[in-house]
Every structure is written in C-alpha cells, then in structure tokens.
Amino acid sequence: MWSATQACWSVYEVWWRRPLPHPFPGDIVLFMHVIPMMAAIALRPHRQREEQKIFTTLNFLTLMIWWVFLYTFIVFPEEYVTLNVSVYSHNWDILYLLENVLLMLALGLSTASASGAWKKVYRQLFLAMALYSVSSEVMNSAIARDQYYSGSFYDLPFLASLCWLLWAALLAQELNPVSEPAVASGERWLALAQRLAMIAILSLPLMGFWAIFLDNSPPKLRLFRLLVTLSAMLVLGICVFIRQFLLDGQLMRLLEASHQGLENLQRLQSQLVQKEKLAALGQLVAGAAHEINNPLAAILGYSELLEANTGLQPDQTSMARKIAQQARRTRDLVSGLLSFAQQTPAEKTLLDIGSLVQRAVNMERLNLENRKVRLEVRLSDDLLPVRGNANQLFQCCLQIIGNAMDALDEVGGGTLNVSAYREANDAIIEFTDSGPGIREPRRVFDPFYTTKPIGKGTGLGLSATYGVIQDHDGQISCYNREQGGAVFLLRFPGVTEAALAEATAAKA
Known about the structure:
It is a single chain. This protein is 67% helix and 9% strand. The strands form two sheets. The chain has a five-stranded mixed beta sheet. The chain has a two-stranded antiparallel ribbon with strand order 1-3. The protein is built from 15 helices and seven strands. The chain folds into three domains: 1-45 and 94-182, no CATH class; 272-341, Helix Hairpins; 349-507, 2-Layer Sandwich (Heat Shock Protein 90), CATH 3.30.565.10. The chain has helices spanning 2-15, 26-32, 35-42, 53-74, 76-81, 85-113, 117-144, 155-175, 184-214, 219-308, 314-341, 353-365, 390-410, 461-471, 497-507, and strands at 349-351, 373-379, 386-388, 414-423, 426-433, 475-480, 486-493. By secondary structure, the chain is an alpha+beta fold. Helix 12 packs across helix 13 (390-410).
C-alpha cells in the first residue's frame, strides 16, 4: 500500500512533472497502510494463542472499520464533500501522527513484554517506526510549507526508516523466534484490548452528538458526518453481533465439554473408589473364607449324616435337612467370596468378542422356556479383536444377562437387547433391558449389594464382574434409560492390525 502511494506520487512529480492533485486518492491508501501492522502487533505473535481464525478476522475488520470511520469522519468531508485543502491536510497530518504514535506505543509495549529473539525484533521495529514517524512528520511539514519535492533531502531519513524496517524483517527471518506460552500479563493485555475496542464503539454516539450539536461546519458536512457515524454504528454493530454469536456458540461448546469432563472425572473417581473397595475387601475375605470353609465342611458333612440316619424322629430329620440347606447356602457364599477375592490375573489371548457374546446369549436362550422374555442380538461386522481371558469374560456376560433376566421376570417379562459394535478403536458391548431399572446405579458394583430376595443372590456377582473388566483394562458402567429399563455398557480396548504387527515384531 505504501509502495502504491509512492509510485503514484513519483508518476505525478517525476514522470509527468506535475504537482499532486487535490484531493489525492493516494492519501487514503497511505493512511490505511499502517492498519495491517497494527493488527499484526495486536495478534501478539510472541505469545502462543488458541484463538480461532474467525475471531482474528473479526478483530482485524473491527480495527480497519474504526480507522476508516475516523478518516471518513475527520478528513473526508473537507477532502471530497466540500474541498478545503488546508483543513483536510491539517486533519490528515494529525490523524496520521496519531496512528503512527499508537503503532509505536504497541511496539514499545511488545518490546517490554517479549524476551529473547522476539525482544530484538520488536526493538528494531520500534526504532524503525520511530524514525519513520519523525521523518513523515518532517516531510508533511515541508509539504505544508510547499518546500518538499521528490528526491529532496527530506527523503533520506524516510528511506532510511524503510530500509530499517526491511532489515528488521530479515533479522526476524534469521532469528526465527518461537512463540512463548501465555502469561498473566498477556491476559491483562487482552483485557485492555477488549476495553479499548469497547471504548471505540461507545465513542460513536458521542461523535454523532458532536456532529449534530457542536460542529460548526456547514450543514452539508454535519449531515455527512452524522450519516457516516450511523453507518459505522450499523457495521460495527453487525461485527459485534457476529462475534457475540460465535462466542455464545463457543461458550456452549465449552460448557458441554466441561460437563462431559465433570462426568468423566466423577466416573473416574467412582471407579477409583470402587477399585479401592474391592482391593481392601478382597484382602479381608481371602483369609476369612478359607478359615470358614473348614468348619463349614464339617457342619455340612455331619448334617448330611444325620439326615441319612433312619433312626431319627421326623422333626429331627427335618431339622438336619434345614441345617444342611443353610450350610450349602453358606458354602455357596464362601465360594463366591473366594472367587471375588482371587487377585491372580488370568492368561489373556486375542478373542473375537462378537463370538463370545453370541455364545453367552445362546447359553441363556436355553433358560427362556416358560419365561416371557425376548432376547435380541445385534453384532457388528467390524469389531476389533480384544485381548482377554475367554472364560472370565464369558462369565461376566452370563452374569449381566442373568441379572437382566431376573429383573424382567419381576415385571412379568420384556425384552433384552444385546449389541456389540465398534467405536473408534474400542469394542463396545451393550446390554439394554425393558425392566424396572436399577434402584441405585451408583451402588450396583458394591460388594454384597443386591436387590434380590434373601437367598437368591449374594451381591458379589457384579462386583466380581467389575474386577474382571478392570483387569482387562476395560470400563463398565450402568445407568437407567429415560423410557425405562437399565443399560450396562462394557468398553474394551481393541487390538488394531498396526498394534498386532508391532507386538509380533517385538516378539521376533
């Protein structure tokens, strides 16, 4: 933009040997050429930023519109509406000086806040712009006194400043400075920039008020300034609306991400607490179960001997039978405790998780006679293989399906949907029933927690399932559906072909 202005100036004075016309269109271009530099400094390239490009574009447009408005409001009326060379030249010089001073101020602040290579680059740019601003003002004063012509000694410091700017660019290319992490002072800088933008927008009504009531210019110029102010308010209002609309959308996405992050944190916290519970309880019951098992075996053996004794009275035989029944129930409980407390990880191999789920479903289909339960299965074809123990995962699927069957029996029947599908590089198994749902989903994996009648469950099945899933680096969660019923979701890391090839190469 600066080169275009200088080319037009040189064509008039050197090539055509004519004085510059009034008004000169190049004045607008020369005035606007500083704005991209101001926008570049406002981006603070020495600090890392995550600002989206659309906001950067809006910031640049807002800055450009503001300076265009200032030029149109202050200089343009005496330049093109009613020509007054002395007034518009004077106003142009003042506004151009203000523009250069603000750019120097921004460069000075950037020099103070930067470090390393960036500080060197900013310092050279600041010094070059200082020389450029001083030489421009000297040149404008000479033009006002009609003492300037192209090729005069006034051009020497001016050209020196331009060469200095080019040298600063080459220095930046040589140093190749790297952006640094943002700091607290950077946040204050951004807040200051936002406040300045707000002040600039709020100044429009004040300038409109001045144009109506305080401006002593002819009515034609006052009306023009008023129309320019209204137009700028409309355009900047649209920019503010677009920015606010985008910020609202970004805020909603951040709120959603924050909500998901909170849910993930709560889930991880729940899993950690659950894991600690299982570990502590496992250590406790591992020793207790073995100690209980020995006298329990004796009680069961003697009660069965008493029951088989034909010399007992009927009431004595009935009592022996009840003792044996309760002993067997206690034995099942001890067996469950031992299974739950087992901490030894099982051998794991590559499994086809779809086939395993299908086998568990086929096993449960045999128990559907005289039950009003419908079992539906949907298995995806693109499931990744999973590394795990087939027997343990098979028992986990049977446990969840059995619990769902019992829940559906309580309400007189229903539907159980079992699906397995791929999500990214994970294998997902989902069990969804149309039963009454889970009374307390957060406690469903707690040891000894059960909603079944006394004698039908120990409350250890889902706890053991939770431990198995964790041992397979998987995740298990449950929740109630809004339309009714419960959902159990199992997620396992799949083994991709690349990971399989890498593991094979490592073994080789």
